[in-house]
Specification:
The structure is a homodimer. By secondary structure, chain A is α/β, with parallel strands linked by helices. Chain A has helices spanning about 5-15, 30-35, 50-60, 70-90, 115-120, 130-145, 160-165, 185-195, 215-225, 255-260, 305-315, 340-350, 370, 390-400, 415, 420-430, 445-450, 460-465, 475-480, 490-505; strands at about 20, 40-45, 65-70, 95-100, 125-130, 155-160, 200-205, 230, 240, 265-270, 295-300, 355-360, 380, 405-410, 435-440, 485-490, 510-514. A 7-stranded mixed beta sheet of chain A has the order 9-13-12-14-15-17-16, with helices on both faces. The longest helix of chain A has 18 residues, at about 70-90. Chain A is globular and about 65 Å long. Chain A starts with a helix and ends with a strand. Chains A and B meet through helix 2, helix 4, helix 7, helix 16 and helix 17 of A and helix 2, helix 4, helix 7, helix 16 and helix 17 of B.
Chain lengths: ~525, ~525
């Protein structure tokens, strides 16, 4: 058995059965091994950012990694932005990065570059296979590191010759390290804060907490019992939300609004969340968002078990389950232009039962998250690392993980163009994805940021932020990749178009002209 | 004056007047400075790989760098593959990479990542601005390093606060280091080899040599005088070729053919070229391509002056200018399917006078380069680093540099999809680019590579190499980005379509179905 086959067989034994791939010559032994063993579903991306973004979406929903198969340092670079996003989401990611054969590396062939160096900034763990014999064991080690708490991006560099060399040995799975134990002192401090001054205590909960309907219910019980505030981080891997689950507000993105929202609190209990920080620094503004003097109580770190910490906290303060008040659905939008409000209303009224939502939008989509609090239950996946271009692949991977659920991709136009190639994979794999493009023809968020630094922009600046010359025709782009679509400019038509798309099988794209 | 403005003014004084940009929040002070000073043409790319690929194409034709303005480590990653290609081309590249404000970096904001680490594998030089006062001087140093011999990729990391801080000082240009002096011993060795056994001596010339019509003529004179062989590397930054310039064959890509082609030689004279190496290692095949025992004479390194070395060599052996025999143009293709041969014939007969050709194709385009030896004079730019996805941006940048020349982009379908967003920039800037997509619906080269590693591929393997499910519709993709186009399936129609597109202003795309 060659090294490549030993890796494929070992990963499959460990439960890995999907491979997102954009292979090249140095991965041909893996392509061959995947083909001969027929143990994994292989999904081709036309660009490496599609591969890692899809692997992220898959893992967020499947709760286990897929394999991303990439080609040399430039291929890793192309994949890097969405690996960055996955890292910030703490999604478990396992990347196999093919490299030149060991003996070939010294000759500066055209594709030679520093694979380990390229991988390092976008990986939590980088290893290089040493021999065909050790290859599978190294893969099991990388997998264990990826899947332990918190989820990590593990990259294993795979020199071509170690894939084709004989001597591969199938390796047994390695159990990931258990989560960090609950910190009893932090628990006591949290109880004290909540009991002494609940109304001025804020709970910020992220990570696995937001993926647990039970943990979310316990949080609401704790807040009902103590009067504490509750916020989620601005960007999250997955939130289980919607009707019957209790709304959780997110820390606002705009720094002025965030500072105001957090100002009342004297204590912050952090559960799988870090102290909130501004996306960017601005002249004369702080980087950290909690008010000065606010005490931080780190109840569970990213490596801890947030849901268990919440259960312990609820127990200590005697919080009892509370009835969840359902947020109202907004009225269906009337015929008329698509504004931020009518966009949100159209979407809230078109979300099907049990959908997966992917959201990549800042300005156009700002109303959507709160407006959908009373929509049917959904899994809500967001851009986590700020590197735009996650949406189309994220939806693709989520649909692979959840073949019985509709995926609704809420997508800004500017960011869609970074990884638009994902639509082709959606068509190829016949995935049930409805993509709604918010076509405001602008990097709208950057215009706001430009004003925020005090500029008075002229034509040349606006030319770097406007997307209206020429207008992008997303319906044509989708058709070019085998995805049907339509353009709508009326909010009521938009709602109906989403409902119709959701009722059919396969991908569909709706360009919502704003 | 703030730091950003001092950098823009200094670069402009040094002759830099084009900026390819995909900015984000941390570059808003540069957007503002570029806007207020109005000293540079700012060209927006919808994806960072478009930005660096266009900067490469621009610099190859303009002989000086543009500025690439990028956003944080993930933005650099997106730009990395085409920076890799530029590095391998030794194109002078200057990248300004915006980073978080210095004080903001410690807080792990969503977009925080290691900018210097991300830049290192794809840069020859990385520096980080230290203060508003030193910012422009550091930019001048980076520019000098980029533009010295050989061309280098210089990256200057620009923390946001140093851009907005006051105290910027306009800095004077720094002269780049001169090329390395001619090695007299190497010259004598080259003369001896040519005089003793010219027929078994091979000259391999690359880099600036191929950009000099005079140097190419001298090479032909030397070969005529001595019987020496002459080859160019497989991939080159720019070759001035076509009618009246003398054909230069390239080292073949397929390893078996390359080994056979190089077998006869006992001496290799290397001029701005390295000893030829296989693109990839294969089981049982050598990495280096020159025959065993072949003596390497390094007449000029990448840091040397190849044209001067050739002039000295011609002088020493008394080579006199020779009449250049023009290669014949192939017959115009008849109506019929587009095959490798008829594709090449159609293109050779449709190349307009004084065109710039960009070429990114391995299998479908293999016949094109030799077939076009007798076409009108062109500047011929190729994929240099093997990282596919250079073609559409390369053509875009070349067209910005050469507004009075038609650019003909010869483009494989699979690689086109990595940076297809460049078409939008072509439409926006009304660039005279004719793109011909070779639609063979396959990563054809990878199929050949899969067979080369001994595989007998089944459905799952072929699914990772075929692009025919669904078929990509490049005419729809182009229309989606504002570029008109048409599909042709007949070789004669293809020739006519290229001629027609060349006769109009603005971009046009032709999908050639093979």
């Amino acid at each position: 058995m060659n090294g490549a086959e030993s890796v494929v067989r070992s990963l499959h034994q460990a439960g890995i059965d999907v491979c997102f791939a954009n292979p090249g010559t140095s991965e041909m032994q893996f392509v061959d091994a995947l083909d001969r063993t027929n143990l994994m579903r292989c999904v081709l991306g036309l660009f490496e950012g599609v591969v890692t973004g899809a692997a992220d979406g898959y893992a967020r929903m499947a709760g286990k990694p897929a394999v991303s198969l990439l080609h040399l340092a430039p291929g890793f670079a192309n994949a890097g932005a969405n690996l960055h996003n996955a890292r910030k989401a703490r999604t478990p990611m396992l990347t196999l990065l093919g490299d030149h054969a060991v003996r070939h590396r010294v000759y500066d062939a055209p594709l030679t570059a520093d694979c380990a160096g390229a991988a390092a900034p976008f990986s939590d763990y980088v290893d290089t296979a040493r021999s065909a014999e050790s290859f599978a064991a190294q893969a099991m080690q990388a997998l264990a590191i990826a899947t332990g708490k918190p989820g990590r991006a593990a990259t294993l560099i795979a020199p071509a010759d170690l894939g084709w060399d004989e001597g591969g040995i199938v390796a047994a799975p390695i159990a990931p390290a258990p989560p960090a134990a609950l910190d009893a002192d932090a628990l006591s401090a949290a109880v004290a804060a909540l009991e002494r001054d609940g109304a001025r205590t804020l709970i910020i909960a992220g990570g696995a907490v937001l993926e647990s309907v039970e943990a979310i219910a316990s949080l609401h019980a704790i807040c009902a019992r103590t009067g504490a505030g509750l916020l989620a981080p601005t960007s999250n891997r997955r939130i289980e939300r919607g009707r019957g689950r209790g709304a959780i507000e997110k820390i606002p993105y705009p720094i002025a609004i965030a500072l105001e929202r957090l100002a009342p609190y004297s204590h912050a209990i952090l559960i799988e969340a870090q102290p909130p920080v501004a996306f960017f620094a601005y002249p004369g503004r702080p980087s950290l968002l909690l008010p000065e003097g606010c005490a931080e109580i780190r109840l569970a770190g990213f490596d801890g078990d947030g849901p268990a910490a919440i259960a312990a906290l609820a127990d200590r303060i005697g919080a009892k389950p509370v009835a969840i008040a359902n947020a109202p659905l907004p009225e269906e939008p009337r015929a008329g232009a698509i504004t931020h409000d009518s966009l949100a209303a159209a979407i809230a009224n078109a979300i099907p039962e049990n959908a997966v939502i992917t959201e990549e939008s800042i300005t156009a989509g700002r109303q959507i998250y709160p407006t959908c609090a009373g929509a049917p239950p959904t899994s809500w996946l967001a851009l986590t690392g700020g590197a735009i271009g996650i949406g189309p692949p994220l939806a693709t991977g989520a649909a692979i993980a959840c073949p019985d659920r509709r995926v609704l991709a809420l997508q800004a136009d500017g960011s869609a163009m970074y990884t638009i190639q994902a639509l082709w994979t959606q068509a190829r794999e016949k995935l049930d994805v409805t993509t709604v493009i918010f076509a405001n023809r602008s990097y709208e968020i950057l215009k706001q940021e430009l004003y925020a630094v005090g500029a008075n922009p002229g034509r040349s600046a606006l030319d770097m932020l406007d997307l209206d010359r020429p207008e992008l025709d997303f319906v044509a782009l989708a058709r070019g990749m085998g995805v049907p679509g339509r353009r709508v400019a009326c909010a009521r038509d938009l709602m109906r178009a989403i409902r119709e798309a959701n009722a059919e099988r396969g991908p569909f794209l709706i360009e919502a002209v704003m």
